[in-house]
């Protein structure tokens, strides 16, 4: 495993992080989830990402039980707040009430006294940004989080939040966007802004919901047990990539991966790690062997010729419009 600073902060994280969205507490049983976490630990992963909303709060609890007994100082645990975790009008968003109550629930489920990074899971258009940042500042000052971050905020929102964080003297160090060789919308605006402000990217879906593994073949039914067959939500997220043009382009990457001595999944994870603003790539797994395969992308350097060839193949199908971040954001509190 290789390690990187998270932005310009003093926090060092594993460049492959383990995340449990769409798996723990829903798609796989707890014993399988625990086996994947053990595989991550055995591979040298120290950074674990989750959120209160994953599997209706069950994912945090699964992670907490699996990490119990590990040396807390040797781990970096990240979680998030925003999406609904209950039926009430204030069981959602980034208002002070929900933020302060949610951190308590997350710590209880994770069985820890603090999280390393507490992240705003989306931007809350229904709450003044000043209220949100003051609440996050109080979470940090209480010792319940060491740093703060955001997920899927636009460059403009990140800049505004960072300015308030500086005024409040709170370390705002991370952004967690979707990023892969197929989804490159952060490159034009979010990445330059974060480089300027000293914020690092912890990116999710580096293998595009499994599409960049090459397991989905043009004209063929999705493999049994794959995310595309998951009726609990996974199929909805991967559907947009199951177009013939995308799947055909991915298959053209296979000889490039072989040339680099990598699987397609390893190539995809290594690709996002070539971006100097990326501090870590989050991988998920339903089987321990998936963890063992994907961590081999750590420390890999792809040469310029290979990167150019990948870009040429995927350019016709890759999404690059920076406006997509705002388009995909909630327009009002859910």
From TrEMBL:
Coiled coil: none
Keywords (A to Z) from UniProt: NADP, Oxidoreductase
An annotated GO BP: methylglyoxal catabolic process
Gene3D superfamilies: NADP-dependent oxidoreductase domain
A single MF term (Gene Ontology): oxidoreductase activity
Residues of the NADP-dependent oxidoreductase domain: 15-314
GO cellular component, one term: cytosol
SUPFAM superfamilies assigned: NAD(P)-linked oxidoreductase (SSF51430)
Family annotation (InterPro entries): K_chnl_volt-dep_bsu_KCNAB-rel, NAD(P)_OxRdtase_dom_sf, NADP_OxRdtase_dom
Top-level taxonomic group: Bacteria
The family this protein is said to belong to: Belongs to the shaker potassium channel beta subunit family.
Protein name per the record: Aldo/keto reductase
Annotated source species: Kitasatospora indigofera
């Amino acid at each position: 495993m290789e390690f990187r600073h998270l932005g310009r902060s003093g926090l060092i994280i594993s460049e492959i992080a383990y995340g449990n969205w769409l798996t723990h507490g829903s798609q796989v049983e707890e014993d399988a989830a625990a086996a994947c976490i053990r595989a991550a630990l055995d591979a040298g992963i120290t950074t674990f990402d989750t959120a209160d909303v994953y599997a209706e709060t069950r994912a945090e609890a699964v992670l907490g039980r699996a990490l119990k007994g590990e040396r807390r100082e040797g781990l970096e645990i990240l979680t998030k707040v925003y999406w609904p975790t209950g039926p009430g009008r204030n069981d959602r968003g980034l208002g002070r009430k929900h933020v302060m109550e949610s951190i308590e629930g997350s710590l209880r489920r994770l069985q820890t006294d603090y999280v390393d990074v507490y992240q705003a899971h989306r931007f809350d258009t229904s709450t003044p940004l000043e209220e949100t940042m003051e609440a996050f500042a109080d979470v940090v000052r209480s010792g319940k989080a060491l740093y703060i971050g955001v997920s899927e905020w636009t460059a403009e929102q990140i800049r505004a939040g960072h300015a308030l964080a500086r005024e409040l003297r709170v370390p705002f160090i991370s952004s967690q966007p979707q990023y892969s060789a197929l989804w490159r919308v952060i490159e034009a605006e979010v990445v330059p802004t974060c480089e300027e402000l000293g914020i690092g990217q912890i990116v999710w879906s580096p293998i595009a919901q499994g599409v960049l593994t090459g397991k989905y073949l043009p004209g063929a039914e999705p493999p049994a047990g794959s995310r595309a067959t998951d009726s609990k939500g996974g199929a909805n997220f991967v559907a947009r990539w199951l177009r013939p043009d995308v799947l055909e382009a991915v298959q053209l990457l296979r000889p490039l991966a072989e040339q680099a001595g990598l699987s397609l999944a390893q190539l995809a994870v290594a690709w996002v790690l070539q971006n100097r603003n990326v501090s870590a790539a989050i991988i998920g797994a339903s089987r321990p062997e998936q963890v063992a395969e994907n961590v081999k992308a750590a420390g890999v350097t792809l040469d310029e010729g290979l990167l150019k060839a990948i870009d040429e193949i995927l350019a016709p199908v890759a999404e690059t419009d920076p406006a997509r971040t705002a388009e995909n954001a909630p327009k009002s509190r859910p």
